[in-house]
Task: inverse folding
């Protein structure tokens, strides 16, 4: 049987707000447990990671994704639909979860979803162990980005003699 060609468009949903509000200390990739209508909605790119976060349940060493909004799939019936902001289980090894738990035990660190993407037909989420930025950190990042942009712009100009 012939292999199915991958779709030319597989969305990669990026949490741009996370990089603005947090310093990303470390990244890791996990699988996500989703229903059928949620997967179809993710394929259409109807996901918002902006307010999402992850928590570890230390008793059972499970990782859960909270507050990620996956819009209901329009063609799904009312019975097969899903709740948009339900908590979803993340799939990772217990050793990895224990390591993440150790890193997030310090004050001010949290687990934030950075990107949501497809890998070999499965929905994956890249989570980051993050530390919150202060207002002056955000200003410094904006200033650094602006000066870099101005330098690149100046380098591309032609010198007229």
Result:
């Amino acid at each position: 049987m012939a292999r199915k060609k991958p779709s030319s468009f597989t969305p990669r949903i990026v949490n741009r707000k996370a990089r603005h509000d947090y310093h990303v200390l470390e990244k890791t990739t996990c699988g996500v447990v989703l229903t059928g209508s949620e997967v179809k909605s993710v394929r259409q790119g109807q996901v918002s990671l902006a307010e999402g976060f992850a928590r570890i349940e230390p008793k059972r060493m499970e990782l859960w994704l909270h507050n990620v909004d996956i819009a209901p799939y329009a063609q799904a019936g009312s019975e097969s639909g899903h709740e948009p902001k339900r908590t979803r289980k993340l799939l990772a090894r217990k050793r990895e979860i224990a390591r993440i738990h150790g890193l997030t035990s310090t004050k001010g660190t949290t687990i934030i979803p950075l990107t949501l993407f497809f890998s070999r037909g499965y929905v994956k989420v890249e989570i980051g162990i993050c530390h919150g930025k202060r207002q002056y950190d955000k200003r410094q990042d904006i200033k650094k980005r602006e000066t870099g942009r101005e330098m690149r712009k100046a380098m591309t100009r032609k010198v007229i003699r």
About this structure: Strands lie at 13-14, 22-32, 47-48, 53-57, 62-66, 69-70, 88-91, 109-119, 122-132. DSSP finds four helices and nine strands in the chain.
